[in-house]
Amino acid sequence: MILVSACLLGINCKYNGENNKNEEVENFLKDKKFIIACPEQLGGMTTPREPSEIVRLDGYDVIKGKTSVINNQRLDVTKKFKKGAEETLKIAKLYNCKEAILKEGSPSCGTNYIYDGTFTGKKKNGVGVTTALLRENGIKVISEKELDVK
Ligand code: SF4
After folding, report:
1. By CB atoms within 10 Å of each CB, which of 19, 64, 105, 144 scores lowest?
2. What is the pLDDT of residues 24-37, one digit of tens each?
3. So where are the chain's domains?
């Protein structure tokens, strides 16, 4: 069973109320078993919601309590991001997911890069909070851009 970011399959759970529907992901999953989740909604955030970024570091550091997640109004939303990651992990465990395909660049789902916490569109290497927690629990996480290297 593969866990997939819900927005990649057209669910309108993105911060701006839209989605990141991706045909390659859809085709890849055609003959496979999968389940979808949106960590930010599972963390109790509304849709639409203000966009958020991890301050300086990345998802692993959020889990360790070394940094926080803020939205573009400078509100600390760390607890919601952690809760979303924990609830997503519960789903992954319930369905015995060994792999996940998550949306690149997201402060929850990013697998290689995220935005740098300045809300200026600058990217940095690092992972989102949910990706970090899933990887810490032995789940292989790739992004929608890495289907060919699976
Ligand atoms: Fe998509 Fe993940 Fe953001 Fe939800 S939290 S909208 S699944 S990238």
Report:
1. 64
2. 999 999 999 999 99
3. 2-149
**What is the rounded average pLDDT for all residues in the chain?**
97
Are 73 and 113 a contacting pair, CB within 8 Å? no
Assess whether the C-beta atom of 109 lies below 6 angstroms from ligand 1.
Answer: yes
Burial of 118 (0-12, 13-18, 19+ CB in 10 A): exposed
Helix boundaries (H) for 13-102: 23-29, 39-42, 59-64, 78-94
How far apart are alpha carbons 143 and 150 in whole angstroms?
Answer: 10
Q: Which atom of ligand 1 is nearest to the CA of 14?
A: 6
Do 117 and 55 contact (CB within 8 A), yes or no? yes
Average pLDDT over residues 42-70: 98
Handedness of CA 65, 141, 48, 87 (dihedral sign): negative
| Angle (nearest 5°) at CA 91 between 88 and 96 | 125
Query: Does any ligand 1 atom lie closer than 6 A to the CB of residue 141?
Result: no
Contact 117, 56 (CB under 8 A): yes
Specify the pTM: 0.97
